[in-house]
Design brief:
Structural class: alpha+beta
Number of domains: 2
Low-confidence stretches: none
Distance between the termini: 32 Å
Number of strands: 29
Largest sheet: 5 strands, mixed
């Protein structure tokens, strides 16, 4: 038996030379991040969600692959003429129209609209009730299955390349904090992989940096530039790679839809371990409606929650209850496609390089299709692919210069849409169950009510202001603050300094408010750290992890950390005049020096 000493990088990715100062720093910061998210995901005692750095894991304990279709389930449910679940929708789009909607592309015609969907989704979608705008918002918010893509086409609309990514935004923000140049380098190398010379891009640091009112936004502790997750190379479902190279744009390197975060995924896993007592038959839809731990009708959330819940309750282990956490390395991973690929009628395989297969259009660019599990010494029961691309190999273009992905058949149909590929592979996570010493108690259904004053997220004030005042627009025409694409990476508070923070919270009750930084063990407020509330203003954004924006309160705080303060992740407590003290763990990180301390 052993406990995990630290959390590894997703797919054990090695973006810096092993044991280099940057590699050590990246792993240190990533371990801090994941440790905080595990703490935030922990349900109240008795919890059947465990922290692998605090629990003995017997050698040989297997992991379980929980996987779901990468194509958005909510597009199929709310628009397709063959929805996966009852009730049917009122739009009845063909599959080609649904693919067109997902790609936001239509050759010589109009792209179908994201028309309104039911506001009431429990116990089932109520089409005769009030309707609301489709969400999540954002330039590719509808790609909400922890897989997002960007497609490049030629002037005739033929697919040239599709990039698929499931990498979490938290990883890329952390990588940027360690080395902006490494982020720039990876953007350029990945998006240019095996691309013809006339489709290659040049990525600058300025392309990736956050600006506000024409000025660069910087980290107030380090003075380093701040990363813009919706930069020109990671925004929307379309990549421009033909014509004037100065007008090239678009691509995908990591997830951007607001619910597609790793912190959210861990929170979902923790919340779904609770043994909710569903009235009537227990299935994916009834359980998510009872537990209120995710978004109904996604392929991902209902399936993940139901699977984890069943494992914890012992339904899949002969009645033996289980503890559950995600297996190390924590992440979301693409699985290899299962489609049948073949060459179209205009391609003679005999003219291509020896042993060419139509499936060779699929390339793993980051991560791996096979990864060894250090606990079992055997491969994980699936892949850990972080980024894949579908593209005609350059060696084939030497034979057929005009060849496109449209010359490839997928399940005997020409490859016209990115969604055709996404429908043929899955996204997965790895859970590692451990035998539980007791049986989990039953719990009533969640009310879903927001507790007034409960803290939600913390950011440096200057960073919050820059992101909150920036606006992103969805194809529906809805706008949303770019603060919705920030992360739960705890801002660093070096000992001996004073920092300005913004902490968002559920709207507090009228009356006075107090705020404090908790001790490292979370047992009480640390009286040595002075926290002053300067203002409380209403804000509207999607707290990262949420599918829709909501109305909250932003508290402008000044936090003075004394020299010698104990280093580590700290929670924040807000005392509401009526609800009493409310806290959320791991919201800030007190460090003995700068960000590298």
């Amino acid at each position: 038996m052993s406990t995990l000493s630290s959390f590894s990088l997703p797919a054990f990715i090695q973006d810096f030379p092993a044991d280099s100062p940057q590699d050590v720093e990246m792993k240190r910061q990533w371990n801090i991040n994941v440790s905080g998210w595990i703490t935030q995901a922990m349900p109240p005692a008795p919890s059947f969600f465990y922290d692998p750095t605090a629990v003995d894991i017997p050698s040989g304990s297997p992991s379980v692959l929980v996987q779901w279709v990468a194509f958005p389930g909510r597009l199929q449910q709310f628009y397709s003429n063959t929805p996966p679940n009852d009730p049917p929708n009122i739009y009845n789009l063909t599959q080609a129209q649904v693919y067109s909607l997902a790609d936001q592309y239509a050759a010589g015609g109009s792209v179908p609209e994201f028309k309104e969907i039911p506001s009431v989704l429990c116990p089932a979608a109520q089409w005769k009730g009030p309707l609301k705008t489709f969400g999540p918002y954002g330039p590719r918010g509808w790609l909400d299955e922890y897989c997002e893509w960007s497609a490049a086409r030629d002037a005739s609309g033929n697919l040239l390349r599709v990039d698929f990514a499931c990498e979490n935004p938290e990883y890329w923000n952390t990588l940027w904090m360690v080395s902006p140049e490494k982020v720039r380098e990876l953007y350029e190398s990945v998006l240019n992989w095996d691309a013809p010379a006339d489709r290659r891009i040049t990525v600058t640091l300025q392309d990736l940096q956050m600006f506000a009112d024409g000025n660069a936004v910087t980290d107030p502790v380090t003075g380093a530039p701040v990363y813009n997750p919706l930069n020109k190379w990671n925004s929307g479902p379309t990549a421009v790679r033909t014509g004037d190279a100065s007008q090239f744009s678009g691509g995908v390197m990591h997830l951007t839809s607001t619910p597609n975060t790793l912190q959210t995924e861990l929170g979902l896993a923790g919340a779904s371990t609770v043994q909710f007592q569903v009235a009537g038959p227990v299935n994916e839809q009834s359980l998510i409606c009872c537990g209120k731990y995710g978004q109904q009708y996604r392929h991902s959330d209902p399936h993940i929650g139901f699977t984890v819940n069943q494992v914890v309750g012992g339904a899949l282990t002969g009645g033996q209850p289980q503890l559950v956490c995600l297996a190390n390395p924590v992440g979301l991973y693409l699985q290899p496609p299962t489609a049948s690929f073949s060459f179209g009628p205009g391609i003679d395989p005999a003219k291509l390089p020896a042993n060419a297969q139509a499936s060779d259009i699929y390339h793993v660019l980051r991560g791996s299709a096979t990864v060894t599990d250090s606990v079992t010494g055997k491969p994980f029961p699936g892949g850990m692919i972080l980024h894949a691309a579908a593209q005609i190999p350059s060696a084939w273009l030497a034979v057929y210069p005009q060849m496109t992905l449209g010359d490839i058949l997928i399940n005997n149909e020409p490859l016209q849409w990115a969604g055709q590929l996404a429908a043929q592979f899955k996204v997965g996570l790895y859970a590692r169950p451990l035998a539980a010493p007791t049986t989990p108690p039953p719990a009533p259904c969640s009310t879903g009510a927001a507790t007034p004053g409960a803290p939600l997220q913390a950011l440096y004030a200057s960073v919050w202001n820059a992101f909150y005042n920036a606006v992103e627009t969805a194809p529906t025409g809805q706008t949303m603050s770019l603060a919705s694409n920030t992360t739960f990476i705890a801002p660093r508070l070096p000992a001996g300094t004073t920092q300005d923070l913004v902490v968002t919270c559920n709207n507090p009750s009228p009356g006075s408010l107090k705020a404090g930084i908790l001790l490292p063990d979370g047992s009480a407020v640390d009286g040595s750290i002075k926290v002053t509330i300067n203002s409380a203003v209403p804000v509207e954004y999607a707290v990262p992890g949420n599918s829709y924006p909501g109305s909250y309160t932003a508290l402008q705080l000044t936090v003075a950390v004394p020299a010698g303060a104990l280093a580590g992740l700290r929670g924040i407590q807000i005392v509401d005049s009526q609800s009493g003290p409310q806290s959320f763990p791991a919201m800030v990180y007190v460090s003995p020096g700068g960000i590298h301390a």
